């Protein structure tokens, strides 16, 4: 309900929001004043002053409590943060009415805003639950006050909102045309029928027949329970095949009338899609009399028999039902013109001419470069061709007299020295004694190191994203991030280093982290000196 | 000073190992170990081959010598040429009661290497062996055996190498390595003289063992200790640990190994220095220049 705002009040003139309700003589903290309910917030200003002392967005309000039966007529608002505000309606005559009016309005408005606020929180919670790494990062950074929660969520929420909206656009489930028929009633033993209603069926009914949905919203839960509503629905003749308007007080008789109206308007509108419009396929002839006889074939029910009437009633209902199912399925689809539909029906993308992007042919001038291997690192020995010839001759002579002598391949001493070289600790086994670092460090230390890296990476990312420092906001942020980095190093990195030193792990696990921090500090100092030079 | 380039490849299958021995015996001989000749190397290979055949009845063996002009199957050669069961045209019992398969194998190997060496033409400028070709032949041999028996057999290739890497065979070599990897054929390497980057890569990619031997006269011992067990047994043994492989790419302009370089996005050729035109595909590139800082306009002060 909209009441005209009292424009004489200066506070109102300054507002650009729409004021929904003004209540005078409302006390807050023992002060007289006026309560204003606006489009997005509720506010209270003391009498005579022109500004609001109390103003809360609907999104912040968690609950409104209006205790009845007390001597004072009050309205209490509880915010998400836990604080509460009390409004005392002190106008003797209209206090109760005012309070109830405010309460009703709030009741209508709060649900709208509630969803929005909760959604963000829900989103954040969901993200933290789904990703344990993110959760750990959050704990490390925000809970220990290294960076603020807004900065943490600044980059992440926007990304995920995009994803989320994309996933929300997933396809909606269509409505089966037989959904009503699928509710097969079962006999209940003693002359009754049992209808099994699932939420899917209910949803289908609501989507197809918005009139029923409206009736539901109006009557449940004020007048009827859900069960009663559906019982009436199935009992009513609206549902049954032969819709004879009995004249009974049936909440659904209105629906029947609305359906008739809807059907008639649909007939008047005609079919939009030229491909399924059967009427346009008829011959357009001049009837008998060459057009001078203007007698359109009548489809009014006055000339028909009773049987024809009931048949036409069923057919009408059938058509109407189908039309509603289709309409419900097409909600949200943009209406497309007839030309577009015809175009889509006659063309296939695959059969079009190939008009791909113009490509440039690969033109290799020196393709043998690919097949040439790298130059060996060690210089090859140079041998003269004479040497080569000599050696080949030697070998040829040797082989000509070759006789395998397999019992004297080598002496036992050479064999044992070879075995010694191949045994653990021997000449050839040196590299194996170096254990991989991940086998020497216990896994909890490794896990901690990983967390440190993630947290440090996050901080460093914030730090480095400030450069180049163009705005005063970035300047502040850079200084803050630098202090955050120092704090992180002090509170997290140093204890970790001491811990691993105590465990006698000689490996330098945190060297790289230290390097990264040092780089950041160097950059900061360079920037700072440049700033100071610029100022002087 | 002797210089031979002979590679021996042995295929071992079910295991079917093929030895690829590439000897640069002469140089080795001149430098360090005078007793180690090609004959000694052949003996060691023979011992290894015999041991492998004796391990299980199903084991098969092939030995390929990789020479400068050809790769030659030292074993089995005659058997396949004249069909199986050739057997006893020349009964070559050694008279010492040895398992006949082994004695036949040894004799064939000795004969073949003599034939190979005798028909070598001496050219003074060739010093590279056809290692890639020998490996390819070994792969074909393995495939042939697989087709013959129709069963899946585990095979590996052992390369005994004395010569240096040949940069010209790089492409073929890499192709062979990847083919072996696809067929799950291990390539082991026993290097006598200097480290071979290509073989290190081959072993790393296919899952085989790479070993550089300090003492060449103990070659047989190293072969038996490290390369005789097949891949399943190797996981139970303490063997020399894998070496660090240098996978750096070589720049196209100098063929130097580089860690950070520039890659042309059109033809993917690697350069060590930036040049605005790629010399392989002649594409021109622009680099964004750093933004020029505009000089502040100085306001002319009105002269008083």
TrEMBL record, chain A:
**PROSITE patterns of this UniProt entry?**
BSD (PS50858)
Q: What name does the UniProt record give this protein?
A: BSD domain-containing protein
- GO BP of this protein: DNA-templated transcription; nucleotide-excision repair
Q: Which gene encodes it?
A: GTF2H1
One Pfam entry name: BSD
**Domain BSD, first and last residues per copy:** 109-164, 189-241
Q: Origin, by domain of life?
A: Eukaryota
Where does this one sit in the cell? Nucleus
**Major location, coarse class?**
nucleus
Stated family: Belongs to the TFB1 family.
Q: One GO cellular component term, please give it.
A: transcription factor TFIIH core complex
Question: Any idea which UniProt keywords this protein has?
Answer: Nucleus, Repeat, Transcription, Transcription regulation
From TrEMBL, chain B:
Task: Give the CC-aspect GO terms.
Answer: transcription factor TFIIH core complex; transcription factor TFIIH holo complex
Keyword list, A-Z: DNA damage, DNA repair, Metal-binding, Nucleus, Transcription, Transcription regulation, Zinc, Zinc-finger
Compartments where found? Nucleus
**Which Pfam family is one of those matched by this entry?**
Tfb4
- For bias kind Basic and acidic residues, which ranges apply? 1-11
Q: Where is this region: Disordered?
A: 1-24
**Family, as annotated:** Belongs to the TFB4 family.
Specify the protein name: General transcription factor IIH subunit 3
UniProt gene name? GTF2H3
């Amino acid at each position: 309900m909209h009441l005209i705002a009292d424009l004489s009040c200066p506070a109102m003139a300054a507002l650009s929001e729409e004021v929904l309700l003004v209540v005078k003589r409302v006390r807050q903290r023992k002060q007289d004043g006026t309560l204003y309910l606006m489009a997005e917030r509720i506010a209270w200003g003391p009498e005579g002053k022109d500004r609001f002392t109390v103003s809360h967005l609907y999104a912040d309000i968690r609950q409104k409590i209006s205790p009845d039966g007390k001597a004072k007529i009050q309205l209490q608002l509880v915010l998400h943060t836990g604080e509460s505000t009390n409004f005392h309606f002190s106008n003797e005559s209209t206090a109760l009415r005012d309070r109830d009016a405010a309460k009703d309005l709030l009741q209508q408005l709060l649900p709208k805003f509630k969803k929005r606020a909760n959604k963000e929180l829900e989103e954040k919670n969901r993200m933290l639950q789904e990703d344990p790494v993110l959760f750990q990062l959050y704990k490390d950074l925000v809970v220990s006050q290294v960076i603020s929660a807004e900065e943490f969520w600044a980059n992440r929420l926007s990304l995920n909102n995009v994803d989320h909206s994309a996933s929300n656009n997933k396809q909606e489930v269509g409505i089966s045309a037989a959904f009503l028929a699928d509710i097969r009633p079962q006999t209940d033993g003693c002359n009754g029928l049992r209808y099994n209603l699932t939420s899917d069926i209910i949803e289908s009914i609501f989507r197809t027949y918005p009139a029923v949905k409206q009736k539901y919203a109006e009557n449940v839960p004020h007048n009827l329970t859900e069960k009663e509503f559906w019982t009436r629905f199935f009992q009513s003749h609206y549902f049954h095949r032969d819709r004879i308007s009995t004249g009974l007080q049936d909440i659904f008789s209105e629906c029947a009338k609305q359906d008739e109206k809807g059907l008639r308007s649909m007939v008047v509108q005609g079919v939009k899609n030229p491909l399924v419009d059967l009427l346009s396929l008829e011959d357009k002839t001049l009837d008998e009399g060459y057009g001078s006889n203007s007698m359109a074939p009548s489809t009014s029910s006055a000339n028909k028999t009773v049987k024809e009437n009931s048949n036409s009633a069923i057919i009408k209902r059938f058509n109407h039902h189908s039309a509603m199912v289709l309409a419900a399925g097409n909600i949200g689809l943009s209406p497309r013109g007839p030309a577009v539909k015809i175009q889509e029906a006659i063309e296939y993308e695959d059969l079009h001419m190939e008009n791909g992007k113009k490509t440039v042919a690969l033109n290799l001038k020196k393709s043998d470069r690919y097949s040439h291997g790298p130059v060996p690192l060690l210089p090859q020995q140079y041998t003269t061709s004479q040497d080569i010839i000599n050696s080949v001759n030697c070998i040829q002579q040797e082989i000509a007299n070759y006789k395998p002598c397999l019992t004297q391949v080598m002496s036992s001493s050479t064999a044992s020295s070879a075995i010694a070289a191949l045994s653990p600790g021997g000449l050839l086994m040196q590299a194996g004694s170096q254990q991989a670092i991940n086998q020497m460090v216990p896994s909890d230390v490794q896990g901690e190191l990983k967390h440190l890296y993630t947290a440090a990476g996050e901080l460093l990312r914030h730090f480095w994203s400030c450069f180049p420092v163009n705005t005063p906001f970035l300047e502040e942020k850079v200084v803050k991030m630098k202090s955050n980095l120092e704090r992180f190093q002090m509170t997290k990195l140093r204890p970790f280093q001491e811990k691993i030193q105590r465990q006698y792990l000689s490996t330098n696990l945190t060297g790289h982290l230290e390097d990264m921090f040092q780089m950041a500090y160097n950059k900061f100092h360079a920037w700072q000196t440049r700033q100071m030079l610029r100022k002087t | 000073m002797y210089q031979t380039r002979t590679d021996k490849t042995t295929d071992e299958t079910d295991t079917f190992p093929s030895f690829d021995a590439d000897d640069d015996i002469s140089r080795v001989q001149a430098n360090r170990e005078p007793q180690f000749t090609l004959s000694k190397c052949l003996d060691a290979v023979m011992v290894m081959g015999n041991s492998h055949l004796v391990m299980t009845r199903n084991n098969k063996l092939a030995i390929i010598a990789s020479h400068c002009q050809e790769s030659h199957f030292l074993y089995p050669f005659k058997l396949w040429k004249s069909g199986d069961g050739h057997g006893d045209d020349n009964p070559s019992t050694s008279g010492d009661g040895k398992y006949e398969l082994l004695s036949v194998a040894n004799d064939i190997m000795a004969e073949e290497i003599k034939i190979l060496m005798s028909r070598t033409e001496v050219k003074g400028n060739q010093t590279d062996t056809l290692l890639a070709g020998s490996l390819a032949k070994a792969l074909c041999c393995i495939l042939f055996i697989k087709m013959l028996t129709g069963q899946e057999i585990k095979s590996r290739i052992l390369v005994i190498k004395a010569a240096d890497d040949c940069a010209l065979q790089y492409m073929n070599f890499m192709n062979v390595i990847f083919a072996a990897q696809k067929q799950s054929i291990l390539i082991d390497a026993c290097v006598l003289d200097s480290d071979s980057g290509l073989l290190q890569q081959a072993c790393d990619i296919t899952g085989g063992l790479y070993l550089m031997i300090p003492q060449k006269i103990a070659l047989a011992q190293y072969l038996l200790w490290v390369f005789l067990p097949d891949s399943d047994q190797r996981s139970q043994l303490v063997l020399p640990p894998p070496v660090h492989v240098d996978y750096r790419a070589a720049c196209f302009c100098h063929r130097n190994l580089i860690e950070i370089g520039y890659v042309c996005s059109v033809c993917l050729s690697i350069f060590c220095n930036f040049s605005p035109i790629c010399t392989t595909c002649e594409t021109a590139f622009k680099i964004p220049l750093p933004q020029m800082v505009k000089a502040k306009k100085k306001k002319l002060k009105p002269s008083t």
